[in-house]
């Protein structure tokens, strides 16, 4: 059809855009369904505050940096999905949330001063309210482990084998291969072993607030 109507690739590009947009909601729905049935989520991101722990302003800042070719409407659409997902996960009850975050991510929090202050305050509030257990990996330990692992979430259930969710700027995907899921679980355990205790982690975040 592109050749017949002499659209010089424009029709193909539009078709690609449509199929990409239709694929994104599909992976999002699959992750959303898995998280809704989960009893525990263990989250790690080597360079950002994990998505489910982001404030609205921080999430928009991340999207504006990470998707420079997207139109404002596309950014708004993805931002709305991220915000909805975060709000749902932070409701009372399951799943239990724990996260491992490098100290550099805390101290180098993205955004203007107001966005940074709000994001750090949000993390402290989540831990103090019992919604989150956070482990900060301090500077000076083998941070290459975190950098090499990429962003992932371990999703555990009461009645089935766990899954892993891998995340990138273009979306994400579920991993159900038991060996791969175990690899992520081992990585999380290693990172957690290097991290500060939850109490010391919150103290570090508080200090970053006033730095």
Key phrases:
17% strand; Endonuclease, Chain A; 54% helix; 211 residues; globular
Helix-strand layout with pairing:
Layout: H1 10-37, E1 40-44, H2 56-66, H3 72-89, E2 96-102, H4 103-107, H5 113-128, E3 132-137, H6 144-149, E4 151-156, E5 163-168, E6 171-175, H7 178-194, H8 198-209
Protein name: DUF5753 domain-containing protein
Domain DUF5753: 28-207
InterPro entries: DUF5753 (IPR043917)
Strand content: 15-25%
Helix content: 40-55%
Largest sheet: 6 strands, mixed
Report how far the terminal alpha carbons are from each other.
59 Å
Q: So, CATH architecture?
A: 2-Layer Sandwich
Protein name: DUF5753 domain-containing protein
Pfam families: DUF5753
Organism: Streptomonospora halophila
Domain DUF5753: 28-207
Question: Could you explain the architecture of this structure?
Answer:
By secondary structure, this protein is an alpha/beta fold. The protein has a single domain (10-209), classed as Endonuclease, Chain A, CATH 3.30.870. The protein has helices at residues 10-37, 56-66, 72-89, 103-107, 113-128, 144-149, 178-194, 198-209, and strands spanning 40-44, 96-102, 132-137, 151-156, 163-168, 171-175. Strands 3-2-1-4-5-6 form a six-stranded mixed beta sheet, sandwiched between helices. It starts with 9 loop residues before the first helix and ends with a helix. Mean pLDDT is 85; it is low at 15-24. It comes from Streptomonospora halophila.
